[in-house]
Amino acid sequence: MNTRRAIMFSILLTGAFMLYAQEETSNSSDQIDIWNLPPLKIEQGHYTENWDTLSKLYNVPEWWREAKLGAWSHWDPQSAAEDGDWYSRGMYMPNNEQYRYHLEHYGHPSEYGYKDLCNDWVIDRWEPDELMQLYIRMGARYFLAMGNHHDNFDCWNSKYQPWNSVNVGPKKDIVGIWKETAQKYKMPFGIGFHATPARTWGQFMTVRYTSDKTGTHAGIPYDALQTAEDGLGKWWEGLDPKDLYGPEHHDGRNSLETPFANQFMWRVDDAIRKYQPDMIYFDDHAGDSQIDLGINMGIGKLTPQILANFYNIASKRTEGKKQVVATFKGVGGRYNSFQNNPELLPLVDRSLVKSTEFFTEEQIMAFPFQTEVSLQEWHFKKGAPYHSASDIILRLMQNVSRNGSLLLNITQRGRGDIEPEARQICEDIGLWLKTNAEAVYGSRPFDVWGNEHCIFTRNDGYIYVTMIDWDGNETHIEQLSTKAPSVGKISDIKLLGSNTPIKFKQTEEGLAISCPKGIPVSEGIKDATLAKGFKVIRITHNKNWFNDDDPGVSSIGWDRQCNRDKGDYNNDLYITNRPGDVWQASYSGRGITLIAPTGKDWGQMKIVIDGQERGIVNLNQENENKAQQQVFSFQGKRGKHIIQVTSLSGTAAIDALIVNP
User: pTM of the predicted model, to two decimals?
Assistant: First the structure.
């Protein structure tokens, strides 16, 4: 009997072992080979991988244009060293200060490399709920989390990158936690992707395959050349350094043709589907004609694929009710990445939101843009100075006045907290915005953006002027004269947040203002320059028309021109020479009058109100070109209405609406 039991037990044990072995083999075969992925199949939908099609269908969503200020957590394992940005590159470069710092604090990169820093990253002081509340008090209206940086480490439960924050280091889904926290406070949520092919494959990976040329470690390869077999018995057993550092290569010029480029696409797709962001950000150029550190930069042909995929996924998720935002750099301007194909620029401008790191556009831009700035270094650096609250408000108003928004990185320490100085700056920014919110949120640019002393915005029929270093003595604002094309008779001026009276007189030369009782100091703001030197006045006037780009407008496919200096209302126009393009606006009132230019250069448009055709407008006149002409009027019942203007022939143009209450 005992013998039979022993035999049966042996049979069962053998069967169990074989089943276990089969499961292990099955699991092993199911592991994703991230270096041999098939090309990513783009989500099917209205958007296609074509700039022309993208430009005809996309419209920057209202929620983002209203927001103006975003908060950013530019935080990943590089923050652990607390020695500034690009640490995972500098630590492998012997002439770099970060290399010397790494030797002193961690050891030689052949023995303690970036993978080890990732594993030792501790985030025990990270309190996402408390930080999100601070960002809201600061006045941020959207939030961006770091998905990955140029280091190639994913801060989420990444399907296609085993070197991620769930497997290594914190063992937490950082992006997922940020998403839940933002959702809790109804904050629009975004993810930033920096691990683009050119940056990561071309700039960050290549320095890791080298070694010291002199000294005690001369010729000893850095840890990037270790293999999966080298990890046996070590903390990283089961992980392959190649997946973090990339296979050895020394030529980044063809990064878009590498397996890494395709892997990058799958990782972006994975994050988009998992976390359903309202916004995605790429720290690279949309085109492919810029050179940086000897590398051909840009996402190039992958950009329209990313956009079509993201827009289609989001459209199905929201049933088309909420559009999303994607930002890329190098769209025209000082770092134009479309030098090889400039004909694409007008299309790209309408297909995404252009991004400009630390650089504010110098003039009013036709389409919305975003500027990214950081309170301190992009990655925390001990002892580095902070930008003051007044610096940030100045940048914010410069951006908003030129049709932009500001994304602000509140630099986190390695363990996830922020320094008291950073916290106070956020509180000061929030107090200022609480008082002056109406000049910022939902605003649009004025005829001109302003100068070093006064910055203009418009909102809900009012003109706002942010006065900088105004002592209350009489000053003249020539842009607000009785001859200005977008200014009517001024009837009242109020200093926001104060009952202090403002004296004013409007003439053909400009607007003279003074504050006889002196400029009050804002209570609670610690930044003295901000508390005393940044004041906003609200101007009431009787030419408070509805501009062609005001909230409530949809202008899919239409081009936009700013800074024309031809007498247009607000110095801008929407135009199109493509029949069938529809400009649409919602308004509340009894009737409207359509304002547009006329002359020999213009065409015809059809007017539809609340679904019924109301007339054909012919802008083509044989006489001279004239701005701000009343070309159509309609009177109906008082209430909410929708007007649609469709291009029929020639060049159509929309300038403004006069809404009759």
Answer: 0.94
